[in-house]
């Protein structure tokens, strides 16, 4: 297959242009040229620019959801949660056009909002399950039982969704800059059982989250 004829190559070209110029400023013809293909081939895969955006976000969500493993326990589950915090930051860096303008995109594209809402629901349920499981595994304090797993999951979802938006504290030059993985790991640490703190800190170092 010649360069540019694949769906994935078109999506990658679109992401590059959306990041550089913004979603609204990029045309399908520009994307076709960047991908090294024809407008006819592009519209064979994606009839509208919105369809292309939806495909990019579906790939993003599916890639992240692939890490929501419910077979893990104990330290392995802690390590996976920390990996998800790091992966979320990596996604912010790879798709800034999306995360920095999330509110506008959700308002402009109801079908994309519906898919995003479903993804957020699944991620919330995974976090809620994971925190409850870690209480049962002895990693989180039993004080974190009851309603805390739900509240903690809710807060983490809000952090991950809005961390890099223009109006977020992260963008306030009057405040210190704190990386999302560090903030999320620190929040989770406040609920870690005393006996597991040293091992939790080791897991953070292994995940590349600075102390």
Q: Would you give an account of this structure?
A:
With 211 residues, the protein is mostly helical. The protein has helices at residues 7-21, 28-35, 39-45, 49-65, 74-94, 96-99, 102-108, 110-136, 148-162, 180-189, 197-206. The protein folds into two domains: 7-47, Arc Repressor Mutant, subunit A; 56-206, Tetracycline Repressor, domain 2 (Orthogonal Bundle). It is built from eleven helices and no strands. The longest helix is centred in the middle third of the chain and has 27 residues, at 110-136. It starts with 6 loop residues before the first helix and ends in a 5-residue tail after the last helix. The mean pLDDT is 92.
Q: Could you name the key traits of this structure?
A:
Arc Repressor Mutant, subunit A; 11 helices; Tetracycline Repressor, domain 2; 211 residues; 2 domains; mainly alpha
Short description:
With 211 residues, this protein is mainly alpha-helical.
Question: How are the SSEs placed, and which strands pair?
Answer:
Layout lengths: L6 H15 L6 H8 L3 H7 L3 H17 L8 H21 L1 H4 L2 H7 L1 H27 L11 H15 L17 H10 L7 H10 L5
Taking the alpha carbons of the first and last residues, their distance comes to 47 Å
Q: CATH first level of the largest domain: which class? A: Mainly Alpha
Count of DSSP helices? 11
Structural class by SSE content: mainly alpha
Supply Rg: 19 Å
Helix/strand order, N-terminal first:
HHHHHHHHHHH
Strand content: under 5%
The assembly state of the depicted protein chains is: single chain
Number of β-strand runs: 0
How many domains? The number is 2
Principal-axes geometry comes out as: elongated
Look up the CATH topology of the largest domain.
Answer: Tetracycline Repressor, domain 2
The major β-sheet equals: none
Percent range for helical residues?
55-70%
């Amino acid at each position: 297959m010649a360069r540019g004829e694949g769906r994935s190559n078109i999506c990658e070209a679109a992401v590059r242009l959306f990041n550089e110029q913004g979603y609204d400023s990029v045309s399908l013809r520009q994307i076709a040229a960047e991908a090294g293909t024809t407008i006819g081939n592009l519209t064979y895969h994606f009839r509208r620019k919105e369809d292309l955006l939806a495909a990019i976000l579906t790939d993003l969500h599916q890639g992240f959801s692939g890490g929501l493993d419910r077979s893990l326990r104990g330290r392995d589950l802690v390590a996976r949660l920390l990996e998800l915090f790091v992966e979320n930051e990596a996604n912010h860096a790879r798709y800034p056009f999306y995360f920095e303008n999330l509110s506008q995109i959700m308002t402009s594209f109801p079908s994309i909002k519906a898919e995003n809402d479903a993804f957020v629901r699944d991620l919330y349920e995974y976090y809620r399950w994971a925190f409850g499981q870690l209480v049962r595994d002895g990693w989180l304090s039993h004080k974190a039982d009851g309603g805390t797993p739900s509240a903690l999951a809710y807060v983490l979802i809000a952090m991950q969704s809005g961390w890099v938006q223009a109006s977020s504290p992260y963008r306030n030059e009057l405040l210190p800059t704190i990386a999302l993985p560090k903030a999320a790991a620190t929040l989770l640490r406040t609920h870690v059982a005393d006996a597991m703190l040293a091992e939790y800190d080791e897991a953070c170092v292994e995940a590349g989250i600075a102390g």
